[in-house]
Amino acid sequence: MVPLEQSRFCRHLSAGDQRFVSDHAVEYRYVAGQTVFLEGDDGNGLYIILEGRVEIYAQSGPGRFHVLSRMEAGEYFGEMATFDGGARSATAKAMSDCHLAFLPVKTVLELLVRSPLLSASLVRDASIRMREFNGRFLQESLNAERVQMVERLAGTIVHDFRNPLNVIGLAADIAAEADGSPEVRRNARDRIRKQIGFLNQMMQELLDFTRSVPPRAILPRVRYAVFIQDILEELRPDALRRGVELRVEGEVPDIRLRFDPQRMTRVFNNLCQNAFDAMSALPQPRLTLRFWLEAGFATTEISDSGCGIPPEHRPHIFEPFFTFGKAHGTGLGLAICDRIIRENGGNIEVSSDVGTGATFRFRLPLLSPDDTDRITLAEMGSTVPPLVTKAP
To answer: Does residue 214 carry a pLDDT above 90?
Structure first.
């Protein structure tokens, strides 16, 4: 037990002022778990702990409580509401059996007039407590942010893995049919293998994104028209199921570009699936692909007839975890698209008018005249001129 005159509150008081405190203090005892005061109660005085421990906490929502401080014998609490005349900003509860001395507001204010040193001491203690609270709040915020990030990553995995898993399930059913021809079973097997490869690639993308792993792939020369034809073949069944008109305006340039086909497939899937989702509740949905060459780059444009992206959201659309227009979106998909395009030597942008859809446009560098058979990503360079806004 700490004598009243040796408490933190009384340590700077004269002997006469300590006697004044002792004469006006009212002593209370609380058992462990008992509430001393509640958040919102009148601030009618402060408490000095003579024996025991007290916890101060606040409620931030239904069932959510944050511990602000834990007080030991010799310390005091409840002074904030005493000074400003407001209600209690937190709840105090006895953590163990406690012996407390209560000083009414009138007594505290009279002491502040009698002892300027007490005023300075209380201000200093308030500053120390505020620093401790800020540190604790920051740590709790960081922990909550980490938990939220894990939840959002889990949501991304569920969202992005659902389509390939559905394809695998359907193909497995076809392969298991007793009257299926060898060709049908072979096609089903190939589809399963392709989707498993796609799932593995998506998992690697998530790992690369969270670990910031630098790319080390060797970029092959890919015939772009053939690659786009394969992409369209993958997109058509889903477009048909969703009632989306899939349109290609103009010819796909019959050229070779250097990029990672699997990762670039991820870009097309992310952009097109987002477009499908954006048009899901609209009449006559349409997805249009355009291609052209200019200034040493091949440009690809993907436009939807959805509701568009508001101007205030467009600057943030490629930021990790920024999400718009999806009930369960996490914002990783477009961030990964941006990373893949840049790591393949290009860049990507978005343009949109609210009510008329959105257009995503990205460019990849054309092969140089002295291009060798294979080139690493590190040799691609990172400087890419700005994108033009319209196709010629």
So the answer is: no
